[in-house]
């Protein structure tokens, strides 16, 4: 073989096509090429350089999507290039070279083109250019008006939607490439379509003439890839699908998804800070509504199965009311079933009977209940995990706040909770009570019974069922019909509930009321734990307040109690000018609650630890009574507490000890009457409770200012001094038995204190020990 180098003149003399001026070489590779002239055949080493227009093309699609049957064959040995453009000539030369390449050369060329394309896309210059374009687009977006933003977002959404639709077949093409690289001979096979395969490709592609004249390059590649996929065997297809699933699995793309979500969150944060105050308020309102709906959905999901399906259990015909149609007078007595907006009939053209309709509804209801019971536990676990993650994230954000941010956050949260509670009580006033029908509602009295509204939160059963409502406070419709034209959706539901409740028998009403009592959350253990946590947090906040804040807090609470007292006076019909107490002495119960050292000034309900029942049971005197007598009107609970204190002070030491022991058992959740109480469990719970109290006191102490710490230490020193004096008096008492018992108790306490002080002293550093000894010496000298 002779290696020749041609210039333009020599190529023209040999009868070869002179390359155009715009053809600039990008990559070079050597192949064997034959040129047939008029009189002789010369074999030479030809150097080919593809033009600029093919630099960005896909090498696999460029060299593997053309088959021998599609190439024009010139039997004279010469290429008819007189009617071909420069691009077509380059493509024909590329096809000829690709067919003469070996498998190794094709693989090497594909790898080279891949590396070149990836290096171009991943270069730093490309990233910087894309960042500049994104920043310019962001600046243009913020300069738009609201109408322009709306139109831009709509166009962007439509473009993205269309792009996703177009990229679906490309995903299949990318998943086919590993198979094509592992089997290069597939690309050189001729098409052998079956009739159904040709019809499938013709229906998928946009080729109108059948020869590919109306197809774009992208559609041609997609058609070729679909054809190759149809020629695969079942094993190859299964392997290809498995590789595709592994490629697009969640585990592989998890980090990419997290990075994408982080970028979205950062962009949303930037957009939020660029909003105006009105836009922020509207955005926060929309976000709060969405969170509220999600929270309501999760709460409904976390309910028990019996509670979530109580409506169907109490009235199974509710499900059939959706599908059945009650005929009016003059119409045929039949039941028409609707599904998806169509009328379903029997084979003879007659409508379905009511029995068949009801049976179908019952089957649908059973299927829904079965599906709900299967998926409910999994959904509950998912909701619990999501709530735990949100709570942990909120806790981390709270600890990262400054003191001022924490104060502002707590104030906002308190106001939000207060408004939510007020809205709950105001919303439940309209449908809190229901009346039982009487023969003559215009002349006779009627009693009211509770009928809960859908979606009501739990309340105390005693407060809901034992209150008195007067007939003058409820609207009465003497026509017997509900005027629904001016009623809201909530009022319509309440009217429907009242109508159903009136149609119930006495047994059904009692059963429903019992279910309502059992489903209330106010007296549940979860609500008690939540109230205890809230009370502890309120105590901490109250002790952290300054004197002015405490004064303002007490004033606000007094005004709130005064308003509650006025509402209760109005509800119970209390005479404002009455001078006698409104409650008489009542028989006291055997079980009563009090502290071991109950001071008379502790009758007032604590502002921080008061429960809703304590606030509702506290009644203040009216303004006229304040003018006549400065004494308070005591409630039944306060009278019982006073009687309990009197009985406690009259007890002997043994009775006090037994009573305190029973009280501690009840406090830690044990039954005092049970004989199987494990004392070790009681001691462990007492230790845990004492540790929690000590930790809370330690937190409060570290949050005090220097003046508050000084005052606290002075009070504590005074208390310890008084206790030591009492111990000394007991040790010098005349009663030997009392002195011996108390001396033993005091000795044990002193030993514990000394051991704790010794351990604390050993943990100190030398500098801290010197400072402690210096302070103790100064205290002794003073």
Polypeptide structure, described:
- Helices cover 62% and strands 3% of the residues.
- A hairpin with a 4-residue loop joins strand 1 (29-36) and strand 2.
- Among the domains are: 8-121, no CATH class; 124-231 and 243-248, no CATH class; 263-302, no CATH class; 306-325 and 335-400, no CATH class; 431-476, no CATH class; 526-649, no CATH class.
- The termini are far apart.
- The model is unreliable at 1-7, 18-73, 184-209, 304-353, 424-482 and 574-632 (pLDDT under 50).
- Helix 6 (146-182) packs across helix 8 (217-231).
- The strands form three sheets. The protein has a two-stranded antiparallel sheet. It has a two-stranded antiparallel sheet with strand order 3-4. The chain has a two-stranded antiparallel ribbon with strand order 5-6.
- The chain is mainly alpha-helical and 782 residues long.
Task: Round the Cα radius of gyration to an integer and report it.
Answer: 44 Å
Report low-confidence residues grouped into runs of 5 or more. 1-7, 18-73, 184-209, 304-353, 424-482, 574-632
Q: Give the DSSP E fraction (strand runs of 2 or more residues).
A: under 5%
Helix/strand/pairing category: mainly alpha
Molecular shape: elongated
* Tally of helical runs: 29
* Largest β-sheet summary: 2 strands, antiparallel
End-to-end Cα distance? 117 Å
Count of β-strands: 6
**Strands ordered across the widest β-sheet:** 1-2
Assign a percent range to the helix content.
55-70%
Give the overall average pLDDT: 65
Biased composition (Basic and acidic residues): 120-147, 217-230, 481-552, 560-578, 644-658
Biased composition (Acidic residues): 586-606
Organism: Caenorhabditis elegans
Region (Disordered): 99-147, 184-230, 235-254, 457-631, 644-669, 701-726
């Amino acid at each position: 073989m002779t290696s020749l180098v041609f210039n333009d003149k020599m190529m023209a003399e040999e009868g070869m096509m002179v390359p155009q001026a715009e053809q600039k070489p990008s990559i070079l590779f050597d192949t064997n090429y034959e040129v047939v002239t008029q009189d002789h055949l010369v074999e030479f080493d030809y150097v080919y350089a593809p033009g600029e227009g093919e630099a960005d093309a896909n090498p696999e699609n460029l060299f593997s999507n053309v088959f021998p049957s599609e190439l024009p064959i010139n039997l004279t040995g010469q290429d008819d290039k007189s009617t071909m453009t420069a691009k077509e000539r380059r493509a024909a030369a590329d096809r000829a070279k690709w067919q003469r390449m070996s498998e190794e050369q094709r693989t090497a060329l594909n790898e080279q083109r891949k590396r070149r394309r990836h290096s171009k896309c991943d270069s730093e210059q490309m990233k910087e250019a894309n960042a500049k374009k994104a920043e310019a687009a962001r600046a243009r977006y913020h300069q738009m008006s609201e109408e322009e933003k709306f139109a831009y977002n709509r166009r962007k959404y439509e473009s993205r939607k269309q792009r996703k639709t177009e990229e679906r077949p490309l995903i299949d093409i990318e998943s086919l490439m590993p198979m094509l690289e592992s089997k290069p001979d597939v690309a050189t096979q001729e098409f052998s379509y079956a009739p159904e395969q040709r019809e499938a490709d013709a229906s998928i592609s946009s080729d109108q003439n059948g020869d590919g004249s109306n197809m774009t390059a992208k559609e041609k590649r997609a058609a070729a890839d679909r054809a190759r996929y149809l020629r695969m065997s079942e094993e190859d297809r299964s392997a290809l699908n498995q590789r595709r699933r592994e490629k697009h699995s969640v585990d592989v793309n998890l980090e990419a998804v997290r990075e994408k979500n982080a970028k979205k969150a950062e962009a949303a944060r930037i957009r939020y800070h660029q909003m105006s105050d009105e836009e922020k308020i509207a955005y926060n309102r929309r976000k709060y509504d969405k969170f509220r709906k999600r929270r309501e959905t999760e709460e409904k999901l976390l309910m028990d199965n019996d509670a979530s399906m109580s409506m169907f259990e109490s009235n199974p015909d509710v499900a059939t009311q959706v599908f059945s149609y009650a005929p009016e007078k003059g119409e045929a007595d039949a039941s028409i079933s609707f599904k998806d907006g169509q009328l379903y009939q029997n084979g003879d053209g007659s409508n379905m009977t009511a029995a068949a309709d009801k049976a179908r509804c019952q089957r649908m209801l059973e299927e829904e209940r079965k599906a709900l019971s299967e998926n409910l536990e999994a959904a509950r676990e998912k909701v619990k995990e999501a709530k735990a993650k949100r709570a942990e994230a909120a806790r981390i954000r709270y600890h990262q706040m400054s003191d001022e941010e924490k104060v502002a956050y707590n104030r906002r949260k308190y106001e939000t909770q207060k408004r939510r509670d007020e809205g709950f009580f105001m919303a439940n006033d309209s449908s809190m009570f229901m009346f039982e029908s009487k023969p003559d509602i215009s002349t006779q009295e009627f009693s009211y019974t509770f009928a809960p509204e859908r979606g009501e939160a739990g309340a105390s059963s005693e407060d809901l069922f034992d209150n008195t409502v007067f007939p003058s406070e409820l609207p009465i419709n003497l026509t017997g019909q509900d005027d629904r034209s001016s009623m809201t959706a909530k009022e319509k539901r309440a009217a429907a509930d009242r109508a159903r409740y009136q149609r119930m028998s006495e047994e059904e009403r009692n059963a429903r009321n019992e279910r309502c009592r059992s489903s209330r959350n106010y007296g549940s253990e979860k609500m008690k734990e939540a109230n205890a946590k809230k009370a502890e947090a309120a105590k901490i906040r109250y002790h952290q307040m300054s004197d002015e804040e405490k004064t303002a807090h007490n004033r606000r609470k007094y005004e709130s109690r005064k308003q509650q007292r006025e509402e209760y006076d109005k509800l119970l019909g209390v005479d404002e000018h009455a001078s006698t107490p409104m409650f008489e002495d009542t028989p006291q119960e055997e079980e009563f609650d009090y502290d071991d050292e109950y001071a008379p000034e502790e009758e007032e309900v604590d502002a921080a630890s008061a429960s809703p029942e304590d606030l509702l049971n506290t009644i203040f005197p009216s303004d006229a009574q304040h003018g006549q007598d400065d004494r308070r009107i005591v409630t039944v609970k306060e009278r019982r507490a006073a009687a309990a204190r009197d009985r406690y002070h009259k007890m002997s030491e043994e009775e006090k000890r037994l009573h305190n022991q029973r009280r501690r058992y009840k406090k830690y959740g044990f039954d005092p009457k049970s004989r199987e109480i494990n004392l070790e469990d009681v001691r462990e719970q007492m230790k845990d409770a004492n540790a929690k109290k000590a930790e809370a006191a330690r937190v409060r102490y570290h949050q005090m200012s220097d003046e508050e710490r000084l005052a606290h230490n002075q009070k504590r020193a005074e208390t310890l001094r008084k206790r030591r004096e009492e111990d000394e008096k007991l040790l010098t008492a005349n009663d030997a038995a009392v002195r011996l018992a108390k001396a033993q108790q005091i000795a044990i306490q002193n030993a514990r204190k000394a051991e704790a002080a010794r351990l604390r002293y050993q943990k100190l550093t030398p500098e801290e020990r010197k400072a402690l000894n210096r302070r103790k010496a100064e205290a002794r000298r003073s």
